[in-house]
Amino acid sequence: MSTERLRTAEVEALLTAFGTLADNDERYAFLVDVATIREIQDMAQRLAVARSLGAGAHYTSIQEATGASSTTISRVSRSLNYGEGGYRTVIDRLGPAAEGGDA
């Protein structure tokens, strides 16, 4: 699906909904309500992978630290390098994961 077709009124409402949440407790409650446990775990894993890639970690160490498959790491790497810039924005604001650390 192209990103143009993804940016629907419903997606805009979802983005706005996230912006209304004041703290991590509210964001957590909303995530638990709107997504499955597996979806939340997958998104968290992808963020950990992106942060590790941002810190310069190698695929093997990322696999060991996060349990992510090489396919997931490759997809995250592609998004990190050629995507919309979302991962870069978050990594810049959070900082990269320490190699072998909080990935």
CATH topology descriptor: Trp Operon Repressor, Chain A
DSSP helix fraction: over 70%
Low-confidence stretches: none
Number of domains: 1
Coarse morphology: globular
User: CATH homologous superfamily, by name?
Assistant: TrpR-like
Q: What average pLDDT do the residues reach?
A: 92
Strand content: under 5%
**Largest β-sheet summary:** none
The CATH first-level class comes to: Mainly Alpha
Q: SSE string, helix = H, strand = E?
A: HHHHHHH
Instruction: Tell how many strands the DSSP assignment holds.
Output: 0
Q: Given the helix and strand composition, which structural class is it?
A: mainly alpha
Radius of gyration: 15 Å
Based on the coordinates given, report the CATH architecture. Answer: Orthogonal Bundle
CA-CA gap between termini: 29 Å
Number of helices: 7
Question: In words, what does this structure look like?
Answer:
- There is one protein chain.
- The chain is mainly alpha-helical and 103 residues long.
- Helix 4 packs antiparallel against helix 5 and helix 4 packs across helix 6.
- The chain starts with a helix and ends in a 9-residue tail after the last helix.
- The protein has one domain: Orthogonal Bundle (Trp Operon Repressor, Chain A).
- The mean pLDDT is 92.
- The protein is 73% helix and 0% strand.
